[in-house]
Structures are given as structure tokens and as C-alpha cells.
Amino acid sequence: MLRPLIPAQLEIDTFQGTAYIGVVPFKMRKIRPRWLPSALAVSFLETNVRTYVLYNNEPGVFFFSLDANSLSAVLAARFRGAFMGAFQLDGTGDIEGTKSVSWTVDRDTPDIASPLLSGGRLYFYKGKTGVLSCLDAKTGEPHFSTQRISGIRSTYASPVAAGGYVYLTDRDGTIVVIKDSEELNIVSTNSLGEGVDATPAPAGDQLFV
User: Fold this and answer.
1) Where are the domains of the chain?
2) Does an H or E element contain 76, and which?
3) Is the pLDDT of residue 115 over 60?
4) Which option is the CATH number for 106-209: 3.90.1280.10, 2.40.128.630, 1.10.287.40, 2.40.40.20?
5) Could you tell me the pTM of the whole model?
6) Can you tell me the distance from the alpha carbon of 171 to that of 129, in angstroms, rounded to the nearest whole number?
7) What's the rounded Cα separation, in Å, for the pair 46 and 26?
8) Could you write out the three-class secondary structure of 119-176?
9) For residues 38 and 118, which has the higher predicted lDDT (pLDDT)?
10) pLDDT tens for residues 50-82?
């Protein structure tokens, strides 16, 4: 039941043969950027829905959704895209500035589309655009950064990987295929002739759109 919802490169982590979904509600208290006066800090409720996964036998968490009841918090999180980072799983408490933080990125990150993790590489758009970056998932070092992809201008669908290629989908139905590699190499461009907002689903040698 969960398998179609999880990226192909991730293995579902089970306990005694059973996979679990967690619904985690919590309250964020007095959240603000460091430069903002404390009087303008906001508190809000947040809920995430997640399950547990493995990547190269390393445990992690896959989030299906992150929801908050504060419009200002959502807008702030989406300003210039979202914050991304890689963190050690053994970190506890306030880990900022510690070795538990492997790397972070807070510019040119995606808005709606999720990043794609494939072959140790992390592909992602800038906001809702077709400007693409690719990082080393372990170090955060860029393989290529903020590259405009001809034919991809507006994106809701996430990049997907299959058969050594990455598929990039524009909202107008254009699909650009690039090699799944450290260098940007465009293989082909195709148009479906109709709009696409949902993320395509690869299965075997087919791509369902």
C-alpha cells in the first residue's frame, strides 16, 4: 500500500515485517528569524505525516505532508523556496553549528516540487521554475547549480528517475529527459500537448503521466 507512494530508491523500513505511518502533531513556539524582534515571533500548530525508510541501509524519515495553521509561517517557509539540509540521525537538542549538521542550503530551493534523490545526487528546482540544481547528497557540494532547462519554465511535478535518466515535467506538458549523472546532459524533449501538474510515475519501462 505504501510502496507506490515512496521514491523507488528508498526501501521501506519495517518493524517485525510491518510498515508504520506516523501522524505527529506539535506546537511551534515563538518562531522568528534571528534579526526579527522577539515581539514579532509567532507560535502555530503543525502536523506532519511520515513513515520510516532506508537509503543504502541508512535509516531515515520520509514525509508525506507538512501542514501548519499559520499562513505567515507557510509564506515565510516558501520565501525563495524552502530550507534544505542533511543531518546526522544521532543529533539531539539544538544541533545548529554542531557536527550533526552535514550541510544546509537556503537559496534556490524548491517550492511545490520535491527534490529527487538518485545515485547519491539530489536534484531540485528553484521555486516553481525550471531552474535546476544538482548536489552531492552526502557533502552538499554542487555538481551543477541553477541551470535553466530549455522547455521547462513552470513546475509543480517533482523530478523522477528511471533507467539512468531523470524526467523533468513542465506544467504545459513538456517533458525533458536528462542523464542521471553529475553533469547536465539533455537527452530529449517531448510534449504531451496538455497540462501536467502531478508527478509522473515510472513503472518498469513505462512512464505514467
Assistant:
1) 1-79, 106-209
2) helix 71-78
3) yes
4) 2.40.128.630
5) 0.65
6) 10
7) 6
8) CCEEEEECECCCEEEEEECCCCCEEEEEEECCCCCCCCCCCEEECCEEEEECCCCEEE
9) 118
10) 999 988 888 888 888 888 888 877 776 666 556
